[in-house]
Design goal:
This protein has 4 domains: 2-246, Rhopdopsin 7-helix transmembrane proteins, CATH 1.20.1070.10; 247-325, no CATH class; 340-468, GAF domain (Beta-Lactamase, 2-Layer Sandwich); 509-634, Arc Repressor Mutant, subunit A (Orthogonal Bundle), CATH 1.10.10. Helices cover 69% and strands 5% of the residues. The chain is built from 23 helices and 7 strands.
Length: 635
């Protein structure tokens, strides 16, 4: 008898832990669902479905540790609130899924959906009375539950009829999918949706007698049910993620896996270990409070470390070999790239070493083509500022052909160290020049010559690498919006192929704001205009063809036209009505300085920048509307 009692206690403890685990995973996935980017009918209804499951299992997990009758009744009604809303959530989700496959409701599904909402709200209202559920039954094993009423039978009929209609929609959606990938993901979704539906139904209403006679079977079935719900929730979220994020398959798998493992799985395991230790302590009448704290810390640290340690194994399972190799190359860039700060620190080190080697007071580095004038670096002290003569020193170094002499005498007591990068298959490229003062060439022995040559070649290599990386950053900046377009099309057309015909490159107004600002900053010439994503607009292409202009000039005219549309009627004034147009005209078309514009418009600089953001957003909206008009006209 004691062995059976102990086994029952163990099974109940495991069931309680899994119930809390389902509450944790459902809440975590609910938060994950809230972050979905494409807030359409599918993702919104799925988020509501996850909220119902959070309510059901969240209340359930508190019920397992509550003994007070009043508290139990309150928690059981919260539990029932989630159950009452769950069928409607399932039907709305199935309706959105079927609509996503290109089969929108013609009226009947919308009518049924609205009817489900009304019925669910009616049952929810009955929770405030004793009509839907009766009093709390606490003295009958294996677990407390609310007394059955006649309305329970009506709700059960509503529950199973609505679930049947939901699965009918799921099957229709599955049949409408064409590709093997879409069908596979839809199948994952249909099968995994069974778990939360069956795991949430209040079986004790009809099986309390059986559960009281066979408590071991009841707790074993509860364990299997909770474990199934835990797994199927993850599978459902994985399938729905393809609607919610404009990401590729590998990114969705990786991010969801990391979220599940580092968040809910870690929390569930930690909760399980501490709960078992606590209950064993009570059983053996031992104080285990210190052990619980140690176990909690140990489980979190060890499990988090294990996730990182075995990352290669689960990535091998999730991704193909080619994907893994490409991902490793991309990830290695983070460690290998030289940032501006890295180059500056390395430059400071080289210049300081050269000053010590040549025994001079200071050294000034000039980088060719500016590579950003900010890369000019001064180490030590110089008798004067040579910045205005940088072109002279760079020209002197460029005409220097004797590569054997590392240091070259200049003018006015100055000497220069040219920085040449010599590739294996090309002529040396001048990267910059180092200027030093009062250096005595007679002190330049062969050993110093060799050391100085090593230092200048290493600095030239660093500058060359940074130059290559800057070109890479420009390419990435141009590529990012295009990749975003492809990802958005991929996300929206996975189950509705008609979306793939959307030709508009405009996907995010914030991105367009950035493109417009970049183009206005370089309105009269510069890479932010000549390489701007706005050049891909049909609006610009059409103006290029019709007016036989270059794309850059066409874009410049589009921006002018958008700014002119912000101009109020009548003669120019400096009132609030004119402030957006005046700001754009003075800053970008007339080239005024910020201080002068602020004074002219009677604004503080902070207020001017706020108004500038509003003005740029207004230009963006005008361009978006013009682009949509042309797209609709051509289609």
């Amino acid at each position: 008898m004691s062995n059976l009692s102990g086994l029952e206690t163990l099974l109940k403890a495991i069931s309680d832990i899994l119930t809390a685990g389902v509450a944790i995973i459902s809440f975590s996935l609910f938060i994950y669902a809230v972050t979905f980017k494409l807030h359409d009918k599918v993702t919104l209804s799925f988020t509501f479905l996850m909220l119902c499951i959070v309510v059901i299992f969240g209340a359930d997990s508190f019920i397992t540790v509550t003994q007070d009758a009043g508290s139990l009744r309150f928690l059981l009604k919260i539990h029932w609130l989630g159950i009452v809303l769950l069928p409607t959530a399932y039907f709305r989700f199935s309706d959105g899924l079927l609509s996503m496959t290109g089969k929108p409701s013609r009226g009947r599904r919308s009518l049924i959906g609205n009817l489900c909402i009304v019925i669910s709200l009616a049952f929810a209202a009955l929770l405030f009375t004793n009509l839907l559920v009766g009093v709390v039954i606490m003295d009958r094993p294996p677990a407390p539950y609310l007394e059955r009423t006649i309305f329970n039978d009506l709700f059960s009929a509503f529950f199973f009829i609505t679930m049947f209609l939901s699965w009918y929609n799921y099957i229709r959606a599955y049949r409408r999918t064409v590709t093997s990938t879409s069908r596979r993901r839809m199948l994952y979704l249909i099968i995994s949706a069974v778990g939360p539906a069956l795991g949430s139904f209040p079986y004790l209403l009809y099986g309390s007698g059986f559960a009281a006679q066979m408590p071991l079977v009841f707790w074993l079935l509860s364990i299997i049910s909770n474990a199934t719900v835990f797994i199927t929730l993850i599978t459902m979220t994985y399938a729905v993620s393809f609607f919610g994020f404009p990401w590729t398959d590998r990114v969705i798998k990786s991010r969801l896996f990391r979220w599940v493992m580092r968040g809910p799985t870690t929390a569930s395991i930690t909760l399980g270990v501490t709960t078992i230790i606590n209950r064993l302590g009570k059983l053996w009448q031992v104080d285990v409070s210190a052990l619980i704290v140690l176990a909690m810390v140990a489980v979190i640290v060890i499990f988090e470390y294990s996730i990182t340690l075995f990352a290669n194994i689960w990535e091998r399972f999730l991704f193909s070999k080619n994907d893994r190799e490409e991902l490793e190359q991309i990830r290695s860039l983070e460690d290998k790239l030289l940032t501006s700060n890295d180059v500056r620190q390395f430059t400071d080190l080289i210049l300081a070493t050269i000053c010590d080697l040549l025994q001079v007071q200071g050294a000034h580095l000039f980088v060719i083509n500016g590579n950003g004038n900010g890369m000019d670096v001064l180490a030590g002290k110089m008798s004067q500022n040579y910045s205005d003569r940088r072109g002279e020193f760079l020209s002197l170094a460029a005409g220097f052909e004797d590569r054997e002499n590392v240091i070259v005498p200049g003018n006015d007591g100055c000497s220069i160290l040219p920085l040449f990068f010599a590739p294996n298959d090309g002529s040396p490229e001048l990267m910059g020049v180092i200027l030093v003062e009062d250096f005595d060439n007679s002190r330049m022995d062969p050993e110093k010559q060799t050391s100085a040559g090593k230092l200048t070649s290493r600095l030239a290599l660093a500058l060359h690498d940074r130059k290559v990386q800057e070109n890479l950053f420009v390419s990435l900046e141009m590529l990012t919006p295009q990749v975003s377009i492809i990802q958005d099309l991929l996300a929206t057309s996975r189950f509705n192929q008609e979306k793939i015909y959307d030709e508009s490159p405009i996907t995010d107004t914030q991105e367009v704001d950035k493109w417009v600002k970049d183009a206005l900053d370089h309105l009269w010439g510069g890479p932010k205009l000549s390489q701007n994503m706005l050049l891909r607009l049909r609006l610009v292409e059409e103006k290029t063809v019709m007016e036989k202009e270059s794309p850059v000039n066409a874009l410049r005219e589009v921006l002018r036209s958008a700014i002119d549309q912000l101009k109020p009627e009548g003669e120019r004034q400096y009132t609030n009505e004119w402030i957006l147009y005046n700001l754009l005209d003075l800053k970008y078309l007339s080239g005024w300085k910020v201080k002068d514009i602020a004074r002219k418009l009677s604004l503080s600089e902070a207020d001017l920048y706020r108004k500038q953001r509003i003005a740029i957003s207004a230009v963006s909206n005008l361009i978006i509307n013009m682009e949509k008009s042309i797209t609709e006209k051509n289609n």
